[in-house]
Amino acid sequence: MQAPTALETSETDFTTALAAHPDRATLLRAYRLMQTSAAMARLYEENKAVTAKYVHATARGHEAIQLAAAFQLLETDYCALYYRDDAFMLGLGITPYELMLQLMAKRDDPFSGGRTYYSHPSLRRPGVPVIPHQSSATGMQAIPATGMAHGLHYLEGQGLLQTAEQQPVVLCSIGDGAMTEGEVAEALQMAVLHQLPMVYLVQDNEWGISATGREMRAMDAYEFAAGFKGLHRLHCDGADFVDSFATMHAAVQHVRQTRGPVLVHAKCPLLGHHTSGVRREWYRGEDLTQHQQNDPLPRFHQQLLTEGFTEGELGYATAQAQTTVQEDYARALAAPNPDPATFTDHEFAPAAVTEEAGERSPAGADKAIMVDAALHAVDDILREFPEALFYGQDVGGELGGVFREAALLAKKYGDARVFNTPIQEAYIVGSTAGMSAVGAKPIVEIQFADYIWPALNQLVEELSKSCYLSNGKFPVQSLIRVPIGAYGGGGPYHSGSVESTLLTIRGIKVVYPSNAADMKGLMRAAFLDPNPVVMLEHKGLYWSKVPGTEDAKTVEPAAGYVVPLGKANVVQEASAEKLQQGDTCVVITYGMGVYWAKTASKHLPGQVEILDLRTLNPLDWEAVQAATLRHGKVLVLTEEPLMNSFAESLAGRIQRHCFQQLDAPVFTLGAANLPAIALNVELEKQMLPNAEKVFAAIEELLAY
Fold it and tell me: pTM of the prediction?
């Protein structure tokens, strides 16, 4: 018999679970750790000349709910914590010493090696739930956390989850102020839509930094969650350990049994500073006195006396905690700092594909257009890797993508693997960080490059930084497909080029194929890469219908063919005779620029080499240098508006490093510097480069 769904579960199930009461050992452990947390906060304040060198916040006032939550989790679970959750981590078994190593940015900080703030954990350790990297956790963590649950839901449904018998859950800890963010609503929507195994723990102390709940919200998190059908809600007194324990036990058991989501709203006092850099005395006044009356520590002390504990037992636990904190602080102070020579380590995880492999032009194979090569590449991946899934706007169901780039994949592999999402670019991208953390391998699509902007918060804060800030523990394997570029009157919201913006984001790779063979080989390499990869796919090249783009249609490589990321390709060579005469140049470009250059160079036979970059990050700088040295004259060609673009940056780099070998300034050509591409095709033509404009630029360059 199947477990009841979240919508079918009766309130009696919660009532039974809420009767859970911690045993004596748990109560005493909770008291000792609550005293430990309080002693740490006190020590940090007393030694703020040292401890406040780097900004931090503590759990003071939140200890009861955090410990109660931590005690429910198993090593097969996952959690996304928030920047005040140091008591939570104590409850998971992390020591004060380890937390203090992070506080002081020491080398042996187990989370980041001194790279990120206090209480920003990332950890894989036996006996402890998995804690993937997260950002500063002011709402952004809700999407990756929900992505973890989504990944578990998928793997469990496919029979691929090795820990299925433990019924793993994901716990996302968050402050009430962050619940007002739109990205949190996206996460909640997907959690209830797919009935994901999620616990959202909302710690509500009624403060942001200096803004009160009354100023920031029209309703609290419990009231807000009522709008999400299928999301169970629980309240608790977050300053009461026994009430918090019962509530969190009920929430976690509900998720384990039904695999549907729960939100717990816990009211807590804020007894510490917002952070070490924002002092409570600056703005809180009488409010602080009111909050101190609800301090969970003296309340718990009195509760334990009524439970039969003696003052001697509690005093011994307190002394243990204080001794541990003092000793650990002394050890952490003496611990070494990171070696400065390691500062570049873990920008990326090592690439899986480093050499071209497989058959690029198998005998007897038919030619394929780029969109079909992409479709076949994804089909091959889904067939070969059961942990792979594909989602985005309109890629599932009957349509299979607005460009038919996912045609019939949902029918072939099922709606659990290939599915539609709402118009939620942040969720589409950010969820891949969570998917990757649990072992799923997501391929996702942003429908048009012009729509990627809502996803940038997740791409920057969650995906791009994860490998570096987790010291290599949590690279994000994520393939993000993005149709891009102008194509015959697409207008201002379906024609844009965004590569220069993406290339300012460190920690992601950006790929831009220009033909079917490269599309297939790069798609597979991008999927196999353990890092976030954005695949830019020019819509005007998909079908080779634009005059001059016929060469984008190539013999289709065999299944398994790969092209390593970061390797450029000379798609057209200059003649040896012209090269010897010194009458040649190189056009360095990608995407549609390859075909503008090919068409333009027909009028200049033998004089133009075309270097197709194929990958913009990592850049094949060696190929760029070699081409520059061969010819001495360079045109960098892009479809983007030119000012402050990747093309101008590359031109500047070439001039800086190859100046003595140049016979002319490095020329650049791109679109006009306008905020959008007009709908009218004649206006579009005026704005964009084309073969005629490229020919004029090459003529001028050759004559320099």
Answer: 0.94
